[in-house]
Amino acid sequence: MPSRILVISTNRERAPQPTVPLGAAWVAESLLQAGFQVRLLDLCFARDALLATQNAIAAFAPDGIAISVRNLDNCNFLAPKSYLPEVRLLVDFIKSRSDARILVGGSGVSIMPQQVLDFLELDHAVVGEGEHAAPLFFRAEGAEHAGRVAGVVRRSKAGVVEAGGGAASAGPFITPRLHRWVETRRYLALEPVLPIQGKRGCTHRCLYCTYRSIEGDSWRVREPGAVVDEILSAMRNTRAREFEFVDSIFNEPEGYLEILLDEILRRGIKARFSVSSLSPKGLTRDQLELMARAGVASAVITPESAAGATLAALGKGFDEGEVHRAAELVSSSRLRALWCFLMGGPSEDETTLGKTVVFLNRYLSDKDHAFLTTGIRIYPGTGLHDVALRDGLVETGDDLLMPAFYFSPQLTPQQARTLLDRGISSPSRCINLLDTQAPVIGALRRIGTAVGLPTPYWRYTRFAKGMSRTR
Ligand code: B12
Ligand code: SF4
After folding, report:
1. How far is 142 from 334, CA to CA, in rounded Å?
2. Nearest ligand to residue 206 Cα
3. Where is the B12-binding domain (predicted)?
4. Percentage of the chain with pLDDT > 90?
5. What is the C-alpha separation between 4 and 41, in angstroms, rounded?
């Protein structure tokens, strides 16, 4: 049975920003609490990933290796890139240097475990959260028992079969203690914000979404006191004074936002917050006022379209009236909003896209911006996969491991581009995925952080776009 576990975070992507390996840290913490000796190797900033891995294996001599794969690809229809070939190189290298028992997990793996195991030629993966499955996997006597742990899937000659235990158990939350595992200083030098997760799961079923495979299909909220303790501990142990809630939807389930922010106020925390996904659905003025009082300065808002037909086709569960109602409230609040739209979903045509343009022209004020994504990544098992099969965009045999995208047959990406270019009155407030990949962004982040520019950094889009053009 292994006793020394090396957790490796494989993510090296730095656009739109390097992301702190919160999931890997959480798994490392759970292994430590279960009695293992644990090290976390974060490859994000490693100059040579293979050399860093070789050194870690030589120094620590692990007999168990937990590999975290956050992203499969960059979800960019206009410039797709899969990260899996570089993960495969790393896995091959690990196998050539160590006989340790290997477990792979992370959001990318949870979306397509079978395909990822096949591609990486690994035997065991965890689907969903790893805190409970990973310690049980490494504690099991022999690979046969390890493969039967709840939440673990294994690769067999006949394809992947679910392990006997079924879905990963969702036991009580532990606290990840990021600062114990990650060199937070490196990340904070590029944006002074640390991620925090207050809840997992989502009960909705949007057509394209993968979150139910990663986080589960019911809400699981953390005790607000524990979330606040985590923030305070991070403030004591790092220089972070800003935190981003990375929850699937910040304003659901009903009532949680209020008890969490009330707790933040009650404990007198002097920090700023941002939110990576706020739904327009049911958003109230009271909530926006409470958010402002508690220090929530900005939010990514995720309507995905401002046209009723597209919203219905995407299964968003709210209509265009709700999107406009939320926008009126946000416009008159202090919250800085980044409005997110997916262009080219099912039923998207010139009329529906035109409605999104009208929305942008009406609501993008001085404080607010928009993030426009062209095309939607197709994942197996989603409703979008069925629609893409019906529309002939993918074939039944496609395993979808390499990026595949849906774009409405009623429009071409070029037509969509022209419509946006002609229609949007403040293009400098609109960001697309290609903008986030501009090489100048990394340098700007570093300078911005050094001089203490207020976050969120997307508010400087106009400036960054100007810089990219002059280079
Ligand atoms: C918030 C978020 C962002 C924020 C991050 C902000 C921040 N400060 O960190 C922003 C907007 C910046 C972002 C950017 C991107 N993101 Co993002 N993001 C998310 C989101 C919503 C949450 C991620 C998170 O922090 N979760 C909390 C942690 C604790 O969970 P976790 O990492 O999944 O870890 C758990 C399990 O996976 C598991 N686990 C993890 N590692 C391991 C290892 C082992 C061995 C085991 C057993 C288990 C295990 O246990 C952990 C604890 O339970 C996810 C969707 C989701 N619901 O997961 C997408 C998601 C991860 N992002 C995704 C993508 C594609 C991207 C981008 C590439 C998009 C782009 N082109 O810009 C970039 C990449 C950025 C980068 N440098 O990597 C995809 C990845 C899938 C894919 N197609 O590859 C996801 C899954 C969304 C989706 N489309 O489905 N993202
Ligand atoms: S509300 Fe968000 S997290 Fe939930 S299913 Fe829809 S897109 Fe996914």
Report:
1. 57
2. 2
3. 3-148
4. 86
5. 13
Confidence of residue 463 (pLDDT cuts 50, 70, 90): confident
Nearest residue (CA) to ligand 1, atom 57: 211
Reply yes or no: is the peptide bond before residue 16 cis, omega within 30 of 0.
Answer: yes
- Nearest alpha carbon to residue 151 among 173, 129, 118, 123: 129
Q: From ligand 1's centre to the CA of 107, what distance in Å?
A: 6
Residue 397 Cα to chain centre, angstroms: 28
3-state secondary structure the chain: CCCEEEEEECCCCCCCCCCCCHHHHHHHHHHHHCCCEEEEEECCCCCCHHHHHHHHHHHHCCCEEEEECCCCECCCCCCCCECHHHHHHHHHHHHHHCCCEEEEECHHHHHCHHHHHHHHCCCEEECCCCCCHHHHHHHCCHHHHHCCCCCEEEEECCEEEECCCCCCCCCCCCCCCHHHHCCHHHHHCCCCCEEECCEECCCCCCCCCCHHHHHCCCCEECCHHHHHHHHHHHHHHCCCCEEEECCCCCCCCCCHHHHHHHHHHHCCCCCEEEEEEECCCCCCHHHHHHHHHHCEEEEEEEEECCCHHHHHHHCCCCCHHHHHHHHHHHHCCCCEEEEEEEECCCCCCHHHHHHHHHHHHHHCCCCCEEEEEECEECCCCCHHHHHHHHCCCCCCCCCCCCCCEECCCCCCHHHHHHHHHHHCCCHHHEEEHHHHCCCHHHHHHHHHHHCCCCCCHHHHHHHHHHHHHHC
Please choose, from the candidates 131, 202, 226, the residue with its C-alpha nearest in 3D space to the C-alpha of residue 171.
131
**Count of CA atoms in the C-beta half-sphere (13 A) of 107:** 17
Average pLDDT over residues 245-257: 98
Q: CB of 149 within 8 A of CB of 130?
A: no
| Full set of structural domains in the chain with CATH | 4-162 (3.40.50.280), 192-437 (3.20.20.70)
Q: Interhelix angle for 49-60 vs 84-97, to 10°?
A: 30
Token pair 């900005």 is found at: 298
Average pLDDT estimate for 150-175: 75
pLDDT at residue 441 greater than cutoff 90: no
Which residue ranges have their beta carbon within 6 Å of ligand 1? 11, 13-14, 16-20, 22-24, 26-27, 66-68, 70-76, 103-108, 110-111, 126, 129-131, 133-134, 195, 197, 210-211, 214-215, 244, 246, 248, 276, 377, 433, 436
Q: What are the backbone dihedrals phi and psi of residue 256, each rounded to the nearest 5 degrees, phi first?
A: -70, -40
Mean pLDDT for the stretch of residues 123-139: 96
Give the residue from 80, 93, 130, 79 showing the smallest Cα distance to 109: 130
